[in-house]
Design brief:
The chain has one domain: Alpha-Beta Barrel (TIM Barrel). The chain contains 11 helices and 9 strands. α1 crosses α2 (59-69), α2 runs parallel beside α3 and α6 (173-182) packs parallel to α7 (197-207). The chain starts with 6 loop residues before the first strand and ends in a 14-residue tail after the last helix. By secondary structure, it is an alpha/beta fold. This is Luciferase-like monooxygenase. To bacterial alkanal monooxygenase alpha and beta chains. One of its GO terms (cellular component) is cytosol. Residues 11-295 form the Luciferase-like domain.
Length: 340
């Protein structure tokens, strides 16, 4: 039996039907407070643009708010889509966060735009560039965050000397290999792209080269969780994400739907079959069922950390799910700041 590992949370400041951006921001703050009380290791927010179901586009701004309502839990990006930005600007933003919340800030980086192509063009970054610039952009960002010897031009102020720890995120083998070669921690997006999970972990560990930041491989994997007091309620709540994933595949840009009593009434059998494959690692059930499935995932992957998303429409039920998972001492290693 494997030892408990740290659990963390990935949040998108979800926008549900009949919810405002202000609601989503307040809900994310409540989520972070609950996560800290229940011993989670970190709360990350992800950059997405132009999505009616996501309010975390201005990721660093959101993180400033999350840091203000918490005391000890780590906060960070999971991730910033670096091709959308100048590395210098990201160094300044996260250097500012590191000055506000010392020793609490992580910077996870992704290589996809996190949006559709029209919105990517509107972001006005990399219009004539190439995604192959990504490794050099990561290295440049790392340099901006390193110690300032007085000779660098330009210099990131804030940012220089902050040494904000970088992570690479990915849903394919590319970032796994790059993270290994750069000696950075790696997080795989198995919550929506499960097919290459085991190959990505293997390639990351095989290519790992120690760095100033990290002496040995460190890998996390994503899991969606819909956990409730009973199995039926958990399955009911999970119909929101089932509908949302189908909306994305139908190119329907909508807020997160309310759960439905019968998912077969709104999705076809073909759609459900595809979803069951994509969401194969989703944890849906009561606490006992959740612990059993989480244990199997942890033992099979031998990951160092698990990062969960809770795609539940109602905030009170979302917070309750976080609390229920936080009580799974058999698989979750609680942090010292837990109050329960």
């Amino acid at each position: 039996m494997s030892s408990p590992i740290p659990f963390s949370i990935l949040d998108l400041a979800p926008l549900g039907e009949n919810q405002t951006v202000r609601d989503a921001i307040q809900n994310t703050n409540s989520l972070a407070i609950t996560a800290e009380k229940n011993g989670y290791h970190r709360v990350w927010l992800a950059e997405h643009h132009g999505m009616r179901a996501v309010a975390s586009a201005a990721t660093s701004v959101m993180l400033a708010g999350v840091g203000a309502v918490t005391d000890k839990i780590r906060i960070g990006a999971g991730g910033i889509m670096l091709p959308n930005h100048s590395p210098l600007v990201i160094a300044e933003q996260f250097g500012t966060l590191a000055a506000m919340y010392p020793d609490r800030v992580d910077l996870g980086l992704g290589r996809a735009p996190g949006t559709d192509m029209a919105t990517a063009r509107a972001l006005r970054r990399n219009l004539h560039g190439d995604v192959d610039d990504y490794p050099s952009d990561v290295a440049l960002l790392q340099d901006y965050l390193s110690d300032d010897d007085g000779s660098r031009q330009p210099v990131a102020i804030p940012g220089a000397g902050s040494k904000v720890p970088l992570w690479l995120l990915g849903s394919s083998l590319y970032s796994a290999q790059l993270a290994g070669k750069m000696g950075l921690p790696f997080s795989f997006a198995s919550h929506f792209a499960p097919d290459m999970l085991f190959d990505a972990i293997r390639i990351y560990r095989m290519n790992f080269t120690p760095s100033a930041q990290l002496r040995q491989p460190y890998v996390s994997a994503g899991v969606m969780a819909s956990v409730a007091d009973d199995t039926a309620t958990a399955a009911h709540l999970f119909t929101s994400v089932q509908q949302q994933f189908t909306n994305l595949r139908r190119s329907a840009n909508r807020p997160i739907p309310r759960p439905v009593d019968d998912i077969h009434a709104v999705l076809s059998e073909m759609e459900l079959h595809a979803l069951n494959s994509t969401l194969r690692y989703a944890v849906v059930g009561n606490p006992g069922e959740a612990e059993q499935k989480l244990r199997k995932i942890i033992e099979a992957t031998e990951i160092d950390e698990l990062i969960l998303s809770f795609p539940i429409h109602d905030i009170e039920q979302r917070l309750h799910a976080i609390e229920l998972v936080g009580k799974l001492d058999g698989v979750m290693q609680k942090q010292l700041w837990a109050t329960q």
